[in-house]
Amino acid sequence: MRRIFFFSFFFSLLFAQYLETNIYLPDTLIGVYHPKALTYNPNTNQIYVGGEREGWILVIDGETNQKVGRIPVGEDVCQLLSNPISCKIYSCNHQTDDVTIIDGRTNHVLRNLSVDFFPFALTFNSQNNKVYVACEEAVLAIDGMSDEIIGEIYFAGSPIAFAYNDRDNKLYCATSLDADYRISVISGSGDTIMKEFATGFGLSQIVYNPVNNHLYCSHPALDMISIIDCATDSIVRWLWVRGEPTYLAVDSIDNKIYTANLTSRTISVIDGAADTILSSIPIDHSPGPLLYNPLNNRLYSQNLSGGITVICCSGDTLIATVGEGNLFSCGIIKENWLYWTNPYRNEIRVMDAVSNQMFATILLSGSTPNALAYNHLRNKLYCTDPTLDKVFVVDGIGNRVLRFIPVGPYPWKLLYVPNNDKLYCADRDSNNLYVIDCALDSVKEVIPVGNYPIALAYNERDNKIYCANRRSDDLTIIDAVGDSVLKRIPIGDYPIALLYNPDLNKVYCALRDDYEVVVLDGSSDSILKRIVVGKRPYALIYNSQEGKVYSANFNRDSLAIIDCLTDSLIKKIRVSNYPWALAYNPQNNKVYCAHRYSNDVVIIDGASDSIINEVDVGDRPVSLLYNPLTNKIFCANQLSNDLTVIDGETNRTIDEIEVDTSPVALALNPTQNRIYTANRDGFSVSVIRDLVGIKEVVTSRLTQNILLYPNPANSSLHIRFLPPGGRIKIYDIFGRLVSAERVDGEGRISAKGLGAGIYFFKLDGFSELRKITVLKQD
């Protein structure tokens, strides 16, 4: 006779839970916000990027486009400069009035050099190995070898721009004092002012053309370009250019100068030989800073209205506009690659200069995790980041970020559907639902829904997705097979929460400003009833044993209880200040309600709906999660940065676990028995290992009470147990009761109604806490 082996898990009272790790999103090399400064070190093939806040520079390997270092500098990095002679990197730190000097070979800080007030720009003197830094009232010269200030040049006005003339070893500095705009000519060897003369009003930018030894100055307020002969250091011509010429670039191959004209949406071309206008190129965008690439003789405009416009300089023709919808602030060239900073998304986009295609995205800042969803089929965690417009994918075994998935401008909620192995992401600001194929971790479909989608629910019986749209006051109902919209239903004022009842195939929708819960038929999607529950219903939970729905009403400090058979209000329970989050414990038939402002959790008996206990938790509890593996409830406390752990049997607090800053969401990984917290201000997901005393038994004797086989199962499960006669309850990984069958000692339970996943079986009448986990394989 063939022996049948099975595993039975015995849970003792030896509870243990601890912080296993923090997973930083996207990684630990973060800290650059609103990036606006780039430089390239040709000696080491590395790119450096800095931005506002925090005081960090990130280092990127030019071969792999991977971040390889993080360097502490001053605050508000407004410009970076590479000194190829001394192999040093200079960081101009506007808010801390200093320049950080970095060894370009080791990426170690050599010194922080205090300078005058508000340094904002850098340029390099290649003949004398000097670095010039422009401050509020002066330009300082720094020796490239000793890193000492060796010259100070003061002006009556404030420097606004400068350019270096390497042919004559002169520095040109544009200054302004009220309406007086001047150019000062500085000797590169002596660091003294050689000449000073007035220019036109509203001078904005200056560039040096080494081909004709001329300096070009833009005056957007005058619609003019002034041209200076650097041999005589005098203005030799004015050119009228329509449309506020602001940004300039020099094509040294064809001896041409380009001006970006903001209001006319054109780029003008100046012949450097004759200093006359050759042509004007319409680009259908408001052009921004210009970057010339001598390797392919192309010009790039970082458009103020979004995207990069590419122009072929040999024929002055428009080639393409790429990256539309993104606002770029600065760029650099490395061989046939271009690196663009995107300050609003805190990233760098890497562009192929040959194909004009965006090749890679490098994330620079920490994320703000908001919502979590666990995929138990692939053992992956998904986490939204509304500020980076991404969904991060985390390996459930190795606790590492696998990749990120670009979605819309504000991903808010997630819903994983195991039947189709798809993830649905409600994007709040684009009014779209992004459908992600979890096998490929890529966006499969983008479904337009209503205005401001904020809540999701899945109807497993009819394979439909429900999306609550807060501002359009309706529900979008989606076919989960074809990912197409079936219908949109006007529902009421401010839909805020959704809940699916699998036993009766009903959907419940909380309307915050109507003080109602609306009940829909899951088959026809018609409204069955509207139930007045109390002021500002915010969260819903289903009691599967009693067939009741609980509504947390945060403006009346009450919990409304609904009978799902009649869809009528049974009673209201007075609870504490601002009930905000709910959880259900099917093992002990208890409901948990967390109160946002009174910092406690009320425990309610699911049969009598009476309050059993009130447990103090941390500061501002915002999320609850029940772990059926250990019969514990986890409460995320946003302001105290910790989790409170409650024993589901004794109703007492058994632990407090410190996590990263501002935990706002929770998820369970039943495969590794891990709890995840999304830490909004910690740029991370904390991983909690939830352990319990486990004894593993392998046997074939019926005296072990329960024998369940095969495991994994497909269409049916065979069960034998002692004593004969009893009811078997089946729960999913979220603790929801999905099936309850009476079996007389031995029988077969159909598994056809169960989707692929992990389930928990419990035999009624046993005092010893015991569960069997079944992994069903389709």
UniProtKB/TrEMBL annotation:
InterPro entries to which the protein is assigned, alphabetical: Haem_d1_sf, Host-pathogen_enzymatic-act, N2O_reductase_N, Secre_tail, WD40/YVTN_repeat-like_dom_sf, YVTN_b-propeller_repeat
Query: Which SUPFAM superfamilies has this protein been placed in?
Result: C-terminal (heme d1) domain of cytochrome cd1-nitrite reductase, Nitrous oxide reductase, N-terminal domain
Pfam families per the UniProt record, alphabetical: Por_Secre_tail
Domain (Secretion system C-terminal sorting) ranges? 708-765
Name the Gene3D superfamilies on file. Answer: YVTN repeat-like/Quinoprotein amine dehydrogenase (2.130.10.10)
**Would you tell me the protein name for this molecule?**
T9SS type A sorting domain-containing protein
Q: Which organism is it from?
A: candidate division WOR-3 bacterium
